[in-house]
What we know:
This protein is mostly helical. The chain has one domain (13-112, 119-210): Glycolipid transfer protein, GLTP (Orthogonal Bundle), CATH 1.10.3520. It has helices spanning 14-22, 33-48, 55-73, 83-92, 108-130, 138-148, 156-166, 172-178, 184-211. Helix 2 (33-48) runs antiparallel to helix 3 (55-73). The protein is globular and about 50 Å long. The structure holds the ligand CCCCCCCC/C=C\CCCCCCCC(=O)N[C@@H](COP(=O)(O)O)[C@H](O)/C=C/CCCCCCCCCCCCC. Ligand LTTT4AJV is lined by residues 14, 43-44, 46-47, 56-57, 60-61, 114, 117-118, 121, 126, 142, 146, 150, 158, 162, 169, 179.
Amino acid sequence: xxxxxxxxxxxxxxxxxxxxxxxxxxxxxxVYLEQYVAGWRGLVKFLNSLxxxxxFISKDAVGKIQILVNYMNGENASHYATVQSMVKYxxxxxxxxxxxxxxHPESGCRTLLRLHRALRWLELFLDRLRTSTEDSKTSALCAxxxxxxxxxxxxxxxxxxxxxxxxxxxxxxxxxEVMNVGPxxxxxxxLGEALPLISEVYQITEDLYAQHNMLDLP
Length: 218
Ligand SMILES: CCCCCCCC/C=C\CCCCCCCC(=O)N[C@@H](COP(=O)(O)O)[C@H](O)/C=C/CCCCCCCCCCCCC
């Protein structure tokens, strides 16, 4: 049965997402694509449990995850082990449309950039949840985080649709329950543990894209 927390096999667990983001970084701080994608899959499970209003967001995220998975399983799989190796391979082989869409509209680099921007939204949203109080509205926390991050890359129509979807987000208590961590104090502690990991993955990717002038890929 599909519930707010998802069906049994689809059950969201913040710990699981935390574990995948922990495994994302190699010793020399490269970002493993497999774990990055697994982290997003875990988050999409949560999104799917929120209902069909969020279907258009989930569909876009799943589509982008699938593009990356196809590269990771394709004939050039060895180049898609880490974000760093993917960037090097695609840049060295002119596989990225840099200024306008051309012959590589779905490069790994531009696809990952979309998820990377969403990771910033997640970081801001989770931080707001962590420091929220019992009467905080998740819709407001989510909208603030969105306006500070992803919204700056979205056209009016998408911003409008996202804003409407945020209005039906469940309350803070339900959110905390769905994370499957325990009482609110433990959720707050777990979020405190998750955030530095997410921030580090975000910052490493941001710096890499900045070095290659790829923060505005079409
Ligand atoms: C710890 C538990 C609480 C947090 C759980 C959060 C679960 C969130 C799961 C997934 C987030 C969705 C990621 C969305 C990626 C969007 C990528 C993007 O920007 N795509 C746009 C641009 O793509 P191209 O056209 O250039 O290919 C695309 O136009 C977007 C379409 C869909 C709208 C995206 C709105 C995003 C809103 C932010 C997420 C809100 C989720 C709320 C749930 C708490």
